Hints:
With 377 residues, the chain is an all-beta fold. The protein has strands at residues 58-61, 79-81, 88-91, 107-110, 116-120, 128-133, 139-143, 160-164, 170-174, 191-196, 202-206, 222-226, 232-236, 249-254, 260-264, 269-273, 279-283, 291-294, 299-304, 320-325, 331-335, 348-353, 359-363, 369-375. The two termini are 25 Å apart.
Amino acid sequence: xxxxxxxxxxxxxxxxxxxxxxxxxxxxxxxxxxxxxxxxxxxxxxxxxxxxxxxxxxxxxxxxxxxxxxxxxxxxxxxxxxxxxxxxxxxxxxxxxxxxxxxxxxxxxxxxxxxxxxxxxxxxxxxxxxxxxxxxxxxxxxxxxxxxxxxxxxxxxxxxxxxxxxxxxxxxxxxxxxxxxxxxxxxxxxxxxxxxxxxxxxxxxxxxxxxxxxxxxxxxxxxxxxxxxxxxxxxxxxxxxxxxxxxxxxxxxxxxxxxxxxxxxxxxxxxxxxxxxxxxxxxxxxxxxxxxxxxxxxxxxxxxxxxxxxxxxxxxxxxxxxxxxxxxxxxxxxxxxxxxxxxxxxxxxxxxxxxxxxxxxxxxxxxxxxxxxxxxx
Length: 377
């Protein structure tokens, strides 16, 4: 997220609707029944022509970070940029797809040469998922699972958001560790992502289990809001496909106008809401959003880790990172670097961009990888 103190005078209210995008870029197909639609809700998801054949003006590499002590990447999932615009923060799920039972540090600060210069969080996080670094350099991570009864050391952990100082001191805990909430109060349930606004209010994208069309109606799918001290303020959103409803709010950021930009992954869309939860609009041309990043100029970077050309989620769409503008809604690029860690294509779940324009993709499958995509000069 870019700082909210900037002043940008260009307003483009039409960006929040698909109509804002030229017809050639978003040719509307007839409404199509989602192939996974077998549950009680039976929504019809509007469909648009896949945005796959886009330029890729980036060169991608995945062997650029030297992990300490012989470590190898596990699932990464989360990535963000330090306020200096140079260092990168990344999640490593302790060499696996979980940190349950591990004392390895899952939160890593990486310099431009690929050296890990700071790490912390060992033994404190079960399933690091969303990662956010605020303007003061504090590091926020969502713990997206609860304790495993088969792992005694996991007791009393999970279902929280943790705020660390840049040096790794725990400053704040949002939620009740080890206790899953029901979506009505300040207790969290498999939280996905977190962001803060200019006043320090905290927005948690809560609930990871709703993207199946047969998810029970009580499944948590909401945005939970807290003040800067962690006091619960309000909640909005519920399971569904209507305006302001979610099927897994998997990613969240804030644009230059202070609006919430939310990756509603199960509904294959990005929703734009006011910070009080008022629905503004949605865009679907960026694919199935697992991760989102909004830069200082309202360029939108969307990591699509789940689309599949044939079958599965969002059929006909290719995965990768789509890049476009929130001001006009036009998707300009798709980063689809085929790298050794994921030879079939790039499927990052987290995404961030540094001051030089390098794009970082945090890959969850194929053993995990941390992909750096550099603009071709």
